Amino acid sequence: MLPAARHQAIVDAVQRERVVRVSDLAQQLGVSLMTVRRDIELLEEGGLLERIHGGAKIPGDTSTHEPGFDLKSTQLTAEKRAIAQEAAGLVHEGMAVGLSAGTTTWALARELVNGPRITVVTNSVRIADLFHHGPPAGSARYGSTVILIGGERTPSDALVGPIATAALKQLHLDVLFLGVHGMDADAGFTTPNLLEAETDRAFVAAARTVVVLADHTKWGMLGISTIAALDEADEVISDSGLSPEARRILAERTGKLRIAG
Q: How far apart are CA 119 and CA 174, in angstroms?
């Protein structure tokens, strides 16, 4: 492949995936890791992407940018479903389950709607709506109880802020499934929304067990505010695209790492 075609392929991959790994690009393009690193350096000089540790991302994809729910829900759907199906196995009848806002936790909610009867506590309008419609018509089982906390609405349809945080301080959860914007060895689990970070920290404090749901593209992403350190997660569930280095760090620093699918 000529350098120009290779460069275009790298830019296309970054635009499509938002975050790409050097190792994946090298395999896809049939070239060495060093060649891909040099290509990324050149493309960064041209402003077409931004280098990160072990890969590249969209330039200007800043720590405060928060994509809307509808856009995110169309991305990495197979990975999110695999993560959701893995997480659903941790939920049992009668549990008080926290579901933070996000498209991966929304995918889990879709699995749980027809699952065991539980009490769901969420700050996600989309998740509450799923449970509101309940089991299919003619189902013999009763639906789960849903507590939707109030607050200010974000682009990702999360309810956040002082009202949401105050409500969560009164509750006790058996397990929290936490969606995040990014994962980083130093910054931990992060979000681009300051108010959402505060609300998510209240979720973490209310839960006996914290399970982070994050696809592989979240590794290396950095939001402006930290929700929790890596070692505050009892489990992390990700997908098979997670890099060996990320797997090593998460396995060492969190309670347990599960790879779905």
A: 10
Q: In angstroms, rounded to a whole number, what is the distance separating the alpha carbons of residues 7 and 171?
A: 52
- 206 vs 164: CA distance, rounded Å: 12
Q: What CA–CA distance (Å, rounded) separates 55 from 51? A: 6
Rg of the chain over Cα atoms, rounded to whole angstroms, equals: 19
Ramachandran category for residue 102: left, alpha or beta (phi over 0 → left; psi -120 to 50 → alpha): left
H helix count then E strand count, the chain: 10, 15
Same-domain pairing of 112 and 190: yes
Do both 209 and 83 map to the same domain?
A: yes
- Number of domains observed in the structure of the chain: 2
> 101 and 51: one domain?
no
CA–CA separation, 139 and 147 (whole Å): 22
Q: How confident is the model at residue 140 (pLDDT cuts 50, 70, 90)?
A: very low
Q: Say yes or no: 26 and 105 in one domain.
A: no
pLDDT tens, position by position, 99-138:
999 999 999 999 999 899 999 999 999 999 999 876 555 5
Question: Which residue among 57, 82, 99 closes a domain?
Answer: 57
Residue numbers of the domain that contains 165: 69-260
